[in-house]
Each structure stands twice: as structure tokens, then as C-alpha cells.
Amino acid sequence: MPELPEVETIKESLKAKILFKKVKEADILCEKLIKYPEKPDFIKNIKDKKIKNLQRKGKFLILKLSHNYNLVVHLGMTGQLLYFNSHQSFDKHTHVLFNFEDSSQLQYNDVRKFGALWLVSDGWLRFVPGLSELGPEPLKKEFSLEYFQKALNKKSIIKYLLLNQKNLAGLGNIYVDEILFRAEIHPRRPSSELSDLEREKLYYTILEVLGEAIKARGTSVVNYMDGNSQKGEFQRHLKVYKRLGNPCYNCETPVERIVLAGRGTYFCPKCQH
DNA sequence: AGCTGTACCTGCAGGC
DNA sequence: TGCCTGCAGGTACAGC
Description:
Structural class: alpha+beta
Oligomer: single chain
Order of helices and strands: HEEHEEEEEEEHHHHEE
Number of helices: 6
Largest sheet: 5 strands, mixed
Strand order of the largest sheet: 2-9-5-4-3
Number of domains: 2
């Protein structure tokens, strides 16, 4: 489900609800999702911890807890973090419960169970797979046009490069397709062959699409919702994603689908070169 | 080094 | 209704 705009929206929606709350107890219904530590230690260590801040790094959500602990959450494809004012009924897809002192509750739901949770102290954050290898945040200064132009010099198919979290953090399948459409670049182009103009256009398109998607509170295609169970709006603005066979909004040519990097890839064969 | 295929899971839509 | 196939926002890993 969740790419940068979705995780950002979840983070902000939860911040308003759970900041400074104290975890009374956690309940783990599916151990598979807890990557570290083992269930008994996870439950023991999160008890009585206070949520001091919420951060997003790429597609990771990090809850900063008291005593220098961190609850790191990756939502995989279908993970949800849902907040409720009181203990709520749940179903077979609810795998972890966080109960707060004031009897409000945070539920981790995940149909496909590709998500992951870690509870680690500050010094151990770097052992969370993928977290310390993340490239720059696209909406921060660290993601400069200069940096991006250099990154594109790698000999790599452009879609593959944009999906790789080591190059920049937070893009996923939907936004990469949408960005490449708007930048009029074919997803199979070798990145090193992009002209200076194309590189610049791509750079600003990344900022533009992510900005718009955050403003729209994310994209709800299947089951994405924020911490308050609210859907996003950006699905209304998608130009190519999941539009196989439908006419391109620019030129009416039917949108095509190929498989790249193992992912369904949608593009306009006429507009994107 | 980069890329493909596969694995991990479950549900849903579409074809017959 | 049921069965089958393909597809789905993620990442990791073996192997070419």
C-alpha cells in the first residue's frame, strides 16, 4: 500500500492522536511480523514507554519512545496502522495491538503480512534492514538536482533506479509510473542516456507529484487508509497507473502495461520516449 | 553491477 | 456456484 505520501499521511494523522501517550501493553497476535526482538522481549520492552515523536524515513515509520527506544514499522503492501479512542473489535488481519494508558488503541492490520515491526534502542536502529541504506529524502534539501543528476549516471533502467530505495527514499510502483508519465520518459530508458533537460524535468516532476500526493493525503487503490481510517484522494489524479487500455489523457493512445523489475508498469507508448 | 525470477501472503476480479 | 489464473502499494535473495 504505502509509498512516501501514504506513510507521511499516516504519520501526521497518528501524531495528532498518540503523541505523548504511554503504552500500557502490546498484544502480538501474529509473531511473523515482529522481526526483533522475540515476542516476550518485545512485549516487555514496549510496556510503559511513552511516544515522544513520530518520524518517517522513506517508507519506514519510526515511533520515538522514551528511554531511547524506537518502534520501527514498515507497512509492506497492505499494512495499516489504525487508531481508535477505545478498545476496538478486530479481525483475522489484525496482528498487533498497542493499548494506551487512556484505553485508546493502535491496531496493526495487514492482509498480506509483508509488513514488519522492530523495537530497537537508538544504537540498534542501523540494524533494521534497509533503514540505514536509504537514499536521500526527495522533499528535503539533501535531494538536490546535483545529487540526482549524478545518481542518474549509473547504468540502470530508469524505473529500476527510481524504485531502488538506495538512490532516493520513498518512491514505489504507483508514483514512479505517474512521475515517468508526467516527465514523458519511457520506463525502460537507461538512466545514463537521459539528457540534461530530461534529468531536470524528472527531478522537478518527482517533487511535484509527491507534493500533490501528500496534499491529497495519499492514493487509495485497494485498502490504504490513514490512522483515522480515512482514504486518500490521489487515485483521482492518476494518469496511467492501472489504466491499461484506456486512452492517454494527452493523446488518446491506449495506455500499455509491461513488466519491469517484476512490477506491473503502465505508460503511454506515444507520450513517453 | 544490474536485472530477472521467485518467494513471502491473502484476497479479489474475470473467464469459463 | 466453483475452479482457475492473474494481479496487487513491498523487499530480499539466488543466479545469470
